[in-house]
């Protein structure tokens, strides 16, 4: 019989079962429906029949950009309608006077973890101006905070690739130095050369065996053309399951017949779609894509930075917002919204030991709700957050080693 470090009794699973969860070495070693004899147990903790959810997965965030942990900075609107180039310029000016990335990233990580985030994918700016400074800072944060959250890093060309000389080489250098994925940004509207931009991105991915996550704001049929080209290249390169298109606004701007055609190509190629259902923007039709077999997941994206002043890192809040904007009302639809910040996001990030299952990592959130649907619509607090079976946050406050109690 496996020795048990911690036994969590009276845990309510998402299907309503009341179970005991046994943890050893940071992994779930048993889930039982009865109070059977588990042998030697280090610590026993009664969860009081509260709902236990798998640790949530932040599918898209920018740890290097936020102003959490810094002074409030009023939002600066674009001068003549939204412009990525102008937003980037405003951002660079604001960040020049901000506190160090290490300080701000740590504050945002703790905010997210305290609400139940166990894993995240952070896009990190790489360009000729900042070089690898942002990447190095977030790589250091990844290591410093690894006991409370796992972090994937996307080397992100926020200023473009072809229009920012030297960026292609820096992206490859970042991947060599430990970036998990290579990013891209609006090949048509920002770089003006879809083929050239994607040649760089897919070339780096294929040479180094890493994934791809491309920001795509381009709308209408132009955006659809880029989405289908990314799907074509993904299939040709055998990169199914390792490529994400983030935002993909075009899917929410064209007629359903076009979306259906594109959805089929995405599903066939194994390309995932990330949406955060941003305010005042069309966004991909979640259920249509889901029914077509496309993995659709979510994340908070920017949180209180130069792009917008909103966000608190709560992925249940994000699931609710996706559901609200999508018109989700039935139990099945609310469960689909929950999947977007848990199982779907975990699949997109390639997390192999995810979920409340024997052999899975003991990463979970405990809160007062009867089921997933109530968790999404009510976003109940306080929450207890466990990473590898260890309590890391309670009631929105991070727990230190010296004050940790089961």
Q: List the helices and strands in order.
A: EEEEEEHHEHEHEHEHEHEHEHHHEHEEE
Unreliable residue stretches: none
Principal-axes geometry comes out as globular
Count every helix, treating DSSP H or I runs of 4 or more residues as helices: 12
Structural class: alpha/beta
* Helix content range: 25-40%
Q: Profile the largest sheet.
A: 8 strands, parallel
Task: From the alpha carbons, calculate the radius of gyration and give it in angstroms.
Answer: 21 Å
Strand content: 15-25%
Q: What's the count of strands?
A: 17
User: Span between N and C termini?
Assistant: 23 Å
Q: Numbering strands along the chain, what is their spatial order in the largest sheet?
A: 6-7-8-9-10-11-12-13
Would you tell me the overall average pLDDT?
Answer: 96
Describe the protein in words:
The structure is a single chain. The protein is α/β, with parallel strands linked by helices. It has 12 helices and 17 strands. The chain has an 8-stranded parallel beta sheet with strand order 6-7-8-9-10-11-12-13. Strands 5-14-15-16-17 form a 5-stranded antiparallel beta sheet, covered by helices on one side. Strand 1 and strand 2 (18-24) form a beta hairpin. Helix 4 packs parallel to helix 5, helix 5 packs parallel to helix 6 and helix 9 crosses helix 10 (331-340). The radius of gyration is 21 Å and the shape is globular. The model has no long low-confidence stretch (mean pLDDT 96).
Task: Tell me briefly what this model is.
By secondary structure, this protein is α/β, with parallel strands linked by helices.
């Amino acid at each position: 019989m496996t020795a048990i470090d911690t036994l969590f009794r009276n845990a309510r699973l998402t299907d309503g079962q009341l179970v005991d969860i046994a943890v050893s070495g940071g992994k779930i070693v048993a889930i039982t429906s009865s109070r059977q004899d588990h042998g030697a147990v280090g610590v026993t903790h009664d969860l009081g029949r509260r709902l236990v959810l798998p640790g949530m997965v932040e599918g898209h965030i920018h740890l290097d950009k936020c102003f959490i942990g810094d002074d409030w900075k009023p939002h600066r609107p674009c001068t003549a309608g939204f412009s990525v180039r102008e937003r980037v310029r405003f951002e660079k000016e604001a960040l020049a006077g901000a506190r160090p990335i290490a300080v701000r990233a740590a504050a945002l990580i703790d905010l997210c973890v305290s609400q139940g985030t166990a894993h995240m994918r952070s896009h990190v700016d790489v360009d000729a101006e900042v070089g690898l400074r942002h990447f190095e800072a977030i790589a250091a944060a990844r290591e410093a905070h690894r006991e409370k959250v796992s972090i994937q890093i996307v080397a992100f060309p926020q200023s473009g690739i072809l229009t920012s000389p030297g960026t292609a080489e820096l992206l490859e250098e970042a991947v060599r130095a430990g970036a998990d994925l290579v990013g891209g940004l609006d090949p048509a509207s920002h770089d003006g050369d879809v083929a050239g931009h994607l040649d760089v991105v897919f070339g780096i991915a294929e040479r180094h065996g890493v994934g791809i996550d491309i920001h795509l704001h381009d709308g209408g049929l132009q955006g659809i053309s880029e989405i289908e080209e990314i799907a074509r290249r993904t299939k040709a390169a055998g990169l199914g399951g390792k490529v994400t298109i983030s935002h993909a606004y075009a899917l929410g701007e064209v007629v359903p017949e076009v979306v259906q055609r594109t959805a089929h190509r995405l599903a066939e190629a194994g390309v995932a779609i990330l949406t955060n259902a941003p305010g005042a923007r069309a966004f991909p039709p979640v259920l249509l894509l889901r029914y077509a077999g496309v993995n659709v997941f979510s994340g908070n994206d920017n949180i209180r930075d130069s792009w917008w002043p909103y966000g608190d890192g709560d992925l249940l809040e994000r699931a609710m917002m996706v559901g609200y904007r999508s018109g989700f009302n039935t139990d099945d639809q609310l469960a689909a919204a929950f999947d977007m910040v848990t199982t779907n996001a975990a699949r997109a990030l390639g997390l192999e030991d995810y979920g409340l299952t024997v052999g899975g990592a003991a990463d979970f959130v405990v809160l007062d709700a009867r089921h997933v649907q109530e968790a999404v619509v009510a976003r109940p607090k306080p929450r207890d957050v466990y990473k590898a079976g260890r309590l890391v946050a309670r009631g929105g406050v991070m727990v230190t080693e010296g004050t940790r109690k089961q």
